[in-house]
Amino acid sequence: MPRRAVVIGAGLAGMLAAAALSGHVDEVVVLDRDELPDGPDHRRGLPQGRHAHLLMSGGLAAMEDLVPGVSMRERLLAAGAHEIPLSSGMLTLTSEGWMHRWRHDGPRMITCSRALLDWVVRTEVLAHSKTEIRTAQAVSLTGTAHRVTGVRISSKAPAGDSATDGEAVLDADLVVDAGGRGSRVVRWLEALGVTGIPERTVDSGLVNATRIYRRPEGAEHFPLTVLHADPYASRPGRSGMVLPIEGDRWMVSLAGTRGGEPPADPDGFLEYIRRLPDPILGRLVSGAEPLTDVHTSHSTHNARRYLEKARTWPEGLVVLGDALATFNPAYGQGMSVAAQGARTLSRELDRSGPAAPGLSRRVQRRVATVVEGPWATAVGQDVWYPETRGGAPKAADRLVTRYSRRLLKAATGSYQAAAALWDVSSLETGPSRLLRPSALLAALNGPLLPPLSGPPLTPAEQKLLDELDQTAS
């Protein structure tokens, strides 16, 4: 008997879930309410889509596993994405000072627009799997508290599916909700009789403001530059970055927590850049040509649905990506967590098959462990900002923060400390990496190099920055 899987959401998590399912069922149907663009264009259903996105090496590795025979890295780079070595290709101002740059190799990340990344992934998954995308709105789940049997959708379903009252029921052996921040899965489960699911939201009030610029001539190899916010300064956090994206462009993205939000008008945008803790971003963009308006987004809170703690869990349902947990985008881990969640689904399907009893519950519990580290990182910092809603530092937070700040201080001038942080932030290893003897010793020793008074520019980079700087004119 043919098996069908239905995925709710055609974003990154949804398409990677389709890739995971494709080798185990006869048909994969992906539902999305948006008409998807034919190329790398922004779509309305992605509130953070116009802002900075970083694909960490741990997330890229998961993508490579999910689409065998396809190098997602090569496809992205061929489409114009950039690959940035964390050790040498970045200028980074942390809450503990400027990071030194190192010649040692280490994790790399991919930078490009979210529209490009989604388009490349969607194109490759459709080309290398038996996946169909339908434009339809998921309305509810069908089935019982013990088994989900399909999805009730809007009446755009093709002939052959049972339809009543302007809606259609799309039967499925396995349903994956990858519907993003707006997922209504908790409400849908309650309608089936699955109740008591804990939820938590931690909201620093972060606002993103982003503008695209033409990259100045000669700046092709200027490092990605990021000024991180300081969660521990007892004032609103302000941050900014200039990162290369496809099409010879720079994405300039600013962020501020409640009370320090960046404005949406062009003059205010530039003034905000100039008031960041270091003038380098203002100097970089002072003479650059803007190509877009300033776009803002308030969809930045951390939210988690603890589905793995439900007393009962129906067979035939898995929840992945932002539908399970959303993170403050300032930490750049959401896409990679979604990819690793889809890989978790794939590995469990490989191990036991789509009809194995308890499959959905096992996947849900294992995906929760993927979420835990990035969630702790995001929430552990956001609770320190003034006026954060949904959490405040507790005794355990204070203890963890003392160590993490000491390790970060060491990382400004210690390769061993920096490497530990890169491994974790890239999702190549879990948080336990920070407690290995090498990391503990690095934290104890502190920075081995003297602190930097400014960004660690090469002479050629300093010359270029001086040439680009029009802030004094």
TrEMBL record:
GO MF term list: monooxygenase activity
Domain FAD-binding as annotated: residue spans: 5-349
Keywords per UniProt: Monooxygenase, Oxidoreductase, Signal
InterPro entries on file: FAD-bd, FAD/NAD-bd_sf
UniProt signal peptide: 1-19
Record carries keyword Oxidoreductase: yes
Domain of life: Bacteria
Keyword Signal: yes
Protein name as annotated: FAD-dependent monooxygenase
Originating species: Streptomyces sp. 900105755
